[in-house]
User: Fold this.
Amino acid sequence: MTEFEQKGRLLGFHRIAGVDEAGRGPLAGPVAAAAVIFPEGYENGDIRDSKKLSPARRERLYRVIMEDALSVGIAFVEPAVIDAINILQATLLAMRKAVLDLSPPPDFIIIDGTARIDLSIPQRTLIRGDSICLSIAAASIIAKVSRDQLMDRYHIQYSQYNFGKNKGYGTSEHREAIRRYGYCKIHRRSFKVTFNKP
Assistant:
């Protein structure tokens, strides 16, 4: 899982950040991104793509990563911005903000997916990076847990949508709640909602 960080160091880079996002698909809530720099030589066989981990394991690894990483950056882009600039651009903006949140800053970044970030820092994209690159996998965990924690707080404010359970994704229960109560402040108005048939 550290092959790509090692390749970066062979090119002369030292602070290599993995970057990933969480929450591109939900009907509500922000898109989140995280960037993680580990110390040189860091290994952890438990860190993997957040989608392959239970919530309890993600929470535990979140704490491990926050303690072990040289630097962690986290950023959110809110639904109004997603609606204004589209989800892809909002995701790239969140990633850019997460990288800029790193201290010390990276000298090389590895991004999950195919799209580059609007920064002058040397970078490479990596398809399925969260499955094959340690720092991207760590970023996927940080982004997912950070967003889930935020959606749990929104659940207290908008309990009728059950964000604590669905995290803003378009479950049948969530779509039924939208049909009954309409949109709330954190819904993405540009996302098409298909309602359950009566």
